[in-house]
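User: Thanks for the earlier help. One more: TetR/AcrR family transcriptional regulator. Can you show the sequence and predicted structure together?

Assistant: Of course, both are below.
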Amino acid sequence: MQTLKPEMKTAILQQAKKQFLQLGYERVTMKSIASAVNMSVGNLYRYFENKDRLFEAVVKPAIDGLTHLLNHHEEPDDAEQASAAVIISAVGELLGELLQNVAEELLILVDGSKGTPFEHMPDQLYTALTEHLEKHLVKDGKQKEWPDPSLVSKPVAVGFLQGFFEIARCHRSDPERMRQAAEDYFRIQFNGLQAVF
């Protein structure tokens, strides 16, 4: 029996990422990936049992990064401990690093995951950010000014994330520029929200 080669697995993942990014999940076939890496389809199935598992392996870094960002970002216990500028800078850097490290995988999730268990990931991101904004509106005592935080938090969340995804689309060929654009975008968005909220 032939052993599985790590360099071949890397080549498969790179080619799959390229094809999923260009064509989306539904239009990519195991045959097209196998052909691109000069192997038989049968041999490809030794590395990945099906297209779903291959897709999952490609987007896992983005899912892990998003999950970490949404579930483990730290907020100071005392708002006076950290200035808004420090918090904005830290979150902006995290978002910039996320884009710099997994922009293509993130775009595959957002634009190319139709037909997979991950096709609702953008909606889940919108919901998570909406809930986060609503929590802060209530926590910060803004519910008097905004009786129903969902009226503003959902459109703000969707708009923010769409801008973030657009930065990835526009600048993915230059990771440093993309990271800087993401940090700047976050600062602009946050400062605008701070003025309103």
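User: Great, one quick takeaway?

Assistant: The two ends are 64 Å apart (CA to CA).
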